[in-house]
Amino acid sequence: MDKSFLLLKLNVHTQEKLLRRQVQYAIPKYYIPQILCEMAALKTDKLIFLSYSLESTSVLEASFDESIWTLICKIINDVYGSNHKMPTKLHPLIPTLRQKIDDYAKAHVLFIAEVPSLKAFPCSHDLCSNDSIRLGHFMDLTDTTSTFTTLDDALDVVSKCKTVY
After folding, report:
1. 1 within domain boundaries
2. Which of 29, 124, 140, 142 is most buried (most C-beta within 10 Å)?
3. Which of 58, 37, 40 has its CA nearest to residue 48?
């Protein structure tokens, strides 16, 4: 795994769901196979998971677990590898996987912080185009992206934000 690469996971919800959504202080167990898959695909050993509500956003860090990922791959290969029929029963390793996911949620997920959520407000200024990059009001043409090498760098920038335009 490439320890210098960090994956950021943010799920976007419809306006209706967002109005009812409560911030989460743990990664839901149904996301754990997905985040392990994403970390494996991107060859990273860390993932930052953001849980957004209108009032606040929680920041959690998850680390890669090779043993669970190997088990998930084994089950997938056993069920779908050479057999093209729809499974009729659960794989015998599913109870083991469920237990490992429970253990993972306790041992490999760290709650980092809860911060006030940023809210975007429409700007009445025209957008301009520069080499197919859409730029809005108050944007510097020379620097349109930010790269953070550590979570502390990212949190430092976010802590200074008051309003997004």
Report:
1. no
2. 29
3. 58
Residue 46 phi/psi, 5-degree rounding, is -135, 150
The pLDDT tens digits for 71-125 are 999 999 988 887 777 888 899 999 999 999 999 999 999 999 998 887 766 666 5
Q: Are 44 and 6 in contact (CB under 8 A)?
A: yes
Say if residue 17 is in the same domain as residue 67: yes
If DSSP codes are grouped into helix, strand and coil, which group holds residue 135?
Answer: strand
Please say whether the beta carbons of 67 and 117 come within 8 A. Answer: no
Query: What is the pLDDT, as a whole number, of residue 164?
Result: 46
Domains: count for the chain: 2
Q: Is residue 138 part of a domain?
A: yes
Domain carrying residue 68:
7-117
108 with 130, same domain? no
Tokens 């993972």 -> residue: 104
Which residues lie closer than 8 Å to 152 by C-beta, 6 or more apart? Answer: none
